Amino acid sequence: MITTNKGMGCPVAKRPAHRLKFSIISLIAVALVAFLMRMISYSAATANGSINLMGYDSFYHMRRILYTTFNFPHPLNFDTYINYPAGFEVGWPPFFDFLGALLAKVLGVGNPSLYTTEFAGALLPVLLGVLTIIPLYIAAAAIFDRKTALLGALVFAVIPAHVYVSRFGAVDHHVAETLLSTSAYACFILALKWAREGSLSLASLKTISSEKKLIKSLAFAGASGLFFALLIYTWIGALVFVSFILLYAFIQTIIDLKAEKNSDYLLICSTVALLATLIFTIPLSAGSLRPGLEMSAMYLSWFQVFYVFSMLAGTLILWGFSLYISKKGLDWKYYPAALILISVAGLLSLKILSAESYSFVIEGMSFFLGKGEYISTIAEALPIFLTTDGTLTFSPILGSLGLCFITALGGLFLLGLEWIGKKSKPEGVFFLLWSVFFAYLTLSQRRFSYLFAVNVAILTSYFLWVLLDSFDFETEVKKLAKSVPIHGNNAMITSKAEMETKSKRAEKETKSKKAEKETKSKIKSKSKINNLSGSKQNSQPDYFKIFSSLVLIGLVFIPCILAGFAFAKDQGLIDPVWKDSLTWLGASSPETSYYLDPAGTPEYGVLSWWDYGNWIVYQAQRPAVSNNFQTGVDDSAHFFTTDSEEEAKAIIEKLKVKYVMTDNLMAGGKFGSIVKLAGENISKYVNVQTVNVNGGLQTIATAKKEFTETEVYKLHQLDGSNLGNLRLAHESTASVDDNDTVSDVKIFEFVPGARLSGTADPGQNITATLELSSNTGRKFTYQNEVMSDKNGSFEITVPYSTDNNAGGVSALSTYSLNAGRNTTVSEIQVTEDDVLKGNKIEVKIPDSK
User: Fold this and answer.
1) Closest listed residue to residue 88, CA positions, set 627, 653, 637
2) What does the pLDDT look like over 481-502, one tens digit per residue?
3) What is the pLDDT of residues 293-344, one digit of tens each?
4) CA nearest 745: which of 716, 705, 772?
5) In three state form, how does the secondary structure of 157-182 look?
6) Partners of residue 769 on adjacent β-strands
């Protein structure tokens, strides 16, 4: 029985039952491998009897899953706990979080607990990651063959880039993007294949009811549109995947025009796919669409509907123009030239007619080019071959894709050579363009490697099979299997049916031999002796070929598995010192309102850098000024970089901030990003020099005075010294492995502060000093200094009381004031009530004259 054509053929006959069973069992085995790889993080993610989430965005996705679960099926679209105090309209489409809530409902039998809901959210990426194997297998089998598809699925099961986004606890929509985009493209590939096999054209639509291949083609094109619609409902940037259909149609039409082929099949498949996308997008997004005809590329709105409609119109224009070129017998080169001019003209027209829509398109293009105000400050959005300082690096690509990246390049090269020399097939062109497109996305932003992992897995499988076939791997393995002796009683038992069959076969062979002529028998007997000796020699496996093949397979799989293990184990867990600090904040700070129903404005907010905003919201259940949507970054950046206490206080009062959180990275490695978003240059704060150290170049940054005057330095390095309204409330510390440095997080409370006032000599520096002990037992000194005015009057605001605070930050002494010339006033008591109410305390300075 014929199962498939070679290369990129469609199924042309039913497969034997045993082969079908083998394929299903093999695919289930691969899915099991993928599941186990993604569950390696289970022990770390469920330590201490709770669900520990991975990364940053996982925490906000879990917040939305919780909200949707308890308000099923309604998503959380506006949240007053982010971008505090204004609140923020969440731009993430809700499908991923809806799936998490639905899974929680199923596991909790309609009434899930908090733990069950968190467990469902943590498990969801694993399930979606494993399901991605199915469309990958379908696409690879359609383009190549089933053995390539199976090996590609196995590579994908262990490839680090995808394991990272689909491991247990990585609650993020990236895994859904991969599943839905692969499903959409796999369906479109099948639509193109069946269209080609069935010779789909406009004329054939009249008799389509009797053509199963054509019906299948249209059905798969429609299914592709459904997956595109779900993708739009999952990620706001999904329109770029839809745009790829138009790009492919443009290039494929050029190929068809050059080959003088009809492109009706392309028009029909593309139109049906985009029309289905449009039809499914409207009802799916109806509940999230903005009022009126408001257009926004940052939220689900009529913009997505308009964009898909424009893609559909563009497809019809492509087809109409290609038809005109064909009928007029014009050179095919007129087609791309004219359409490029039309596209430029259309973009200019859009700028004139709708400047807002034009800006959305330009911003979207800038995003996928890796450009933008915030993009350059996000590590995962960096080009995959560059570090933050622009240095060439191979670590990210090898860490996320292993040696598969190299084999994928080899596969892409061989595939191009194979298909260039003969008539290209539409689905083959589609796959090549798809691979190049996702490779570009990965090159521009390293985070998109999880998308490229699908293509890398398929191309690696293809490249491996080319090499393995050169070693006759399958043949040698079969020889090896036959050469292994079978022992035991079971091997000697032959059933009655088998004996009868062999007996009948022997009788036929005897009659056949008797009918042969004696002369032929002699000639053949001589020939048989030669063939027999050759057969014995050929039946022996070539162990060198088998060993070489296994080495090739090992070179691909072993690095992937090791990196996948490393990714899946514990990378991305919230830092223990942050978890400790956030637990304290949630338990020890005044509770805020509306956490489970964030419609009203809470009482106060917490200010930190945007990286930690989602942690603050979910782990401490407190409102965050700035979070991972990059909300509130301007105010945060200016607060941490200002050298003016008055400006810092004004920002805090404007934003109703009660707590400020800092860590050693904000005063270190993250400071460059903070400075950039504050509109400053890092050279203002540090001297950066490249010096020769032990024969190698090393970059050394030396802090300037301007850095020591910033708010983040005063808080984190000086424990709030020289600041009158912020006091250390809690700190968490931990030693960094294999390093002498300490990782620490500090929480400062904003208070009115007690005011120590008095009279001294005019222009005299007055310094208030207090010895303290933190909650960890660390002793430190607080100081604040002012200068008396021309009348000698002064007022120093101090944030700490001298009352003892068991278990927290406590005073070890009373305040002392130094007014110069050895004039010191000691034993100044400041109560907690003085600090919280801003009471004025008169201090009498002895006459120094």
Assistant:
1) 627
2) 777 665 544 444 444 444 444 4
3) 667 777 788 888 888 998 898 888 888 888 888 787 777 777 777 777 777 7
4) 716
5) HHCHHHHHHHCCCCCCCHHHHHHHHH
6) 783, 816
